[in-house]
Each structure stands twice: as C-alpha cells, then as structure tokens.
Amino acid sequence: MSASVPTREVARRAFAAEFNDATYTFKESDDDRAPVYSLLPTGERANRVFVVGTLTETEDVGDDAEYWRGRIVDPTGTFFTYAGQYQPEAASTLRETETPAYVAVVGKPRTYETDDGTVNVSLRPESITIVDENTRDRWVAEAAERTLDRIERFDVADEYAAMADAEYDPDLSAYRDQVLAALEDLEEDLGVPAQA
Amino acid sequence: MTDLRQHAVDIHEQFSDAVEVDVDEVEARLETLVSEYKVPIEEARRSVVSTYLDEAGIERDEIATGGSNAEVDVADIDAPEEWVDLTAVVVELWEPRADSIDQVGLLGDETGTIKFTKWAKSDLPELVEGRVYRLGNLVTDEYEGRFSVKLNRTTTIEELDEEIEVGEDTTDVEGALVDIQSGSGLIKRCPEEGCTRVLQNGRCSEHGEVEGEFDLRIKGVLDDGEEVHEVIFDQASTEDLTGIDLAEAQEMAMDALDTEVVVEEMRDTVLGRYYRVTGPTLGRYVLANEVETLDGPVDVESVLIKARSIA
Fold first, then answer.
1. Does A177 touch chain B (CB under 8 A)?
2. Pairwise CA distance, residues B75 & A81, whole Å
3. CATH class entry, domain B70-160
C-alpha cells in the first residue's frame, strides 16, 4: 500500500556559508538504514540539498582510483563536492566540465573530521548538470527566501531550532546579513541592462 | 453557539446512542485540548472522537453522524474525518492489494476525482465502473496531503440513471527538477489491446513476452525546497522539454545499442532547471499537461524587502 512507500527527502536550499557551518549530523532512529541528517544552524534538518553556483575548479584528488573534487562558489562561500566510482556520472561531469561554469547539484551533506579535530562539510552529488546564469540567479533568490523563512520561524519550541540552538548557539543575524548581501549583489547584477 | 460548542454537539450526536455522555462533557474535553494544550480544533476533535470510540469499543468507520451530512463536490473535500454525501461516477476500479479491501478505485464528478476505499467487512453492494451513484455517509481521509473517501457499514448506495462528465482537478506545481526516476526516457509499452503497461526486459507483467511499442516519457521530481512532487511527462511534453523526439531517441538508442543513452542525454538537459507544471493528479503523480520553463526575470525585489524587514 502507499503507506509503505518511503517519502522522498526534500532538497533544502542553503547558502554555502550556512551549509559549511552544519557540522552536526544525526539520525531519527537506530536503524542502520535510517537517513542521516545534517542540522542547519537556522533550525532545519537536511538529508538532501539543491545548490547552484559557479564551478571554479576541479581536481582529481584520488590516489589509485579517480576521486574528483569540485569547488562550487555562491555569493557567501564555497561548496566542496566529491565524486568517485560510486557517483560515476557526477565524476565524469567534474572530469569533463571546463571551468568556470554554472552547475546545479543535487546531493547529500557529508561531514568528516580532520586530524586536527575540525569537522568539514561536503556535498556528495546525486547529479551535477551544467545550467545557465538565469537558473543560478533564480537559485540565489530562492535560497535567500528559504533561509529567511527559516530565520523568521526560528523558535526553540521547534525540535530542530532547539537542536540548532543547543549545538551551535547560532548568530542568526549573521546569516540574515549574508542573505541580504547576496540579494543586493544579485539586484545590482540584474539592474545593469545586458549588453547585446 | 461557539465553534467549540458546535463541535461538541456534532460529536455528541455521533455517540449519543452508543455512549453515556452529555454535550457539556464533550465540550470540556475539547476545551482542555484547545485552550490548555494549544491543540488545533481539528486535532482536538479527532482526539476526543477517539476517546469515545475506545469507550464504546467501536471502530471509527462504524459510527455515523446523527444529522444529515453535507452533500459535497469532490473538489470541496479538503479535510480528513468528515462525514459527507457524494454523487459520483466510478471512474476506475483498481486491484485491491489487501484482503480487508473489497473495492478501491477512483470516483469522479464535475469538479474532479478522488480515491475511494470500500472495506470487505462493511458488506456493501458491488460498485460498477462507469455507473453513477449517490453515496451517503462517507468518511473523508487524508494521506500526505491527498484526500480520499472511505465507505463504511453505514454508507448508503443508490444507483442513479444519469451521466456525469468528470472534471479534471488540475494542480499547479513548480520547483527545480531534482531527479529523473527509472523507467524514464525511451521505453517500450505492451501492444495488447487496452494494455499500455511499460515492459521490463521485454516482458509485460500481464501478457508476458511481447513485441513492445516505443514511447517516450519522464518520471521526474520537482522540488521547491519545501515540498516534492512527482511528475510524469508524456511523449509530447517530454519532446517539448528535451527537444528529443521519438524518432531521434530511437536513432540514438540504435547507434549506441542501448536505450539508456536517451535518458542520460535528457538528464543533462533538464536536471537542475526550474519548471512549472500544470495537470491532473493521478495517484502520487501530477501529469504534466502544460510545462513552462521558468527562465523569465528573477524577482529579487520581494525577497530583498523581506530580508530588510527581518531585524
């Protein structure tokens, strides 16, 4: 019956600066196959995200097998995405794409701890596709709106806001300032009539 | 009369035969949930009903409202746990997937279609596809935002000698296309009369090994960051969306000796772009009758105003 069909996880929208701050991960149950969520500082859980930005650099950082790293830049920072043999399509996109290019990535947040104890957040891609500037601009406006929504409804009575409050003690005004700066940049870009 | 009182009266009417209870007590229970525990009234009502169901030792679908229900249109059904009457045609019957279900399928009227379930234990007469019935005492239900009606032991079924033209309840969804599911691209369908099942490895689940007919479709996922919607693009809208028509797709597959190349090419063209899709819903899918690529000017101004308004 339909009740047994697992619901697909929503792809959250978050800017790189917030995404990279989401170092705390958790599961909702003890089941091995239970989805892993990363906790966004603005008080939402994310098992999947959708990002659009500028792919500025790709590098094969693998030892034996290919393991591609891509740097994807948005108005607030850089997403790091890694694709190897288990993400063959994403890996080949990273291998073959000439940078810089606008790319859209659907993927899962992943965290790893470095030797000095800092936790890095990266993006394991389900898909990477090359898109146009309009799609990128649309994403910036959308990510801004979703982030503002989260900031606006942040309330420690909510489970994930409470969790974010305890884990990060987040400075929400900093995230709001990043959003504002991103939007002002975008407005400035769009305000200049395009040269034919 | 206050809203709370009205709800209390309704609930009392449902149970007055089965349980020893007065309206004031029902209202007090509602009052506690709503005022003290900040439970929304619909939830409170559900909870109080459950309490009395337990007390009376009866199943939820065995009770009926005392008074007459609202005669509703399909499109008006927007809340679970309501008792309604409906005049509708049986649009289609599906294969029940459990012994407890006698019949399951789709009812339709001028305003749209809705799933119905008829339980085996309710012991009701058979509904026939294509016929129109006046159905009394149905209970509405909801699952993940989609509504259905359930027939129960108290449901009255009266066949009417009339016709109903079923309306399409179109929905409008937009977002980024974040996934293309398996079974997309160049597919083969069963050629048997009336059967259009998609073949798996050249086999139809009903008719076995058959010489399939080629078709194009995309089963995709639109995601706006808050909700996901599964969308089916048929041959025409797939061609519109991807710029690949059936003949080209077949050629591509022949050259590569593999049909997968078609969907791979489609992924590159459509994944990560924003679309608005309009069409009827079928089960969990929206059928993409109209597709609009969202590539117009981006509205920054309204988001900026919002950003500046947050201190």
1. no
2. 45
3. mainly beta
What are the pLDDT digits (tens) for B135-182?
998 999 887 667 899 998 888 999 999 888 887 778 889 999 999 999
Confidence of residue A42 (pLDDT cuts 50, 70, 90): very high
To the nearest whole angstrom, how far is the Cα of A184 from the nearest Cα of chain B?
8
Q: Which helix (H) or strand (E) holds B87?
A: strand B83-94
The domains of chain B are located at 3-58, 70-160, 171-293
Which residues of chain A from 130 to 149 reach within 8 Å of chain B, CB to CB?
Answer: 130-132, 134-135, 137-146, 148
CB pairs under 8 A between A and B: 110
ipTM over 0.85 threshold: yes
Question: To probe the interface with B, which of A1, A7, A8 has the most B CB atoms within 10 Å?
Answer: A8
- Please provide the CATH number assigned to the domain covering A9-186: 2.40.50.140
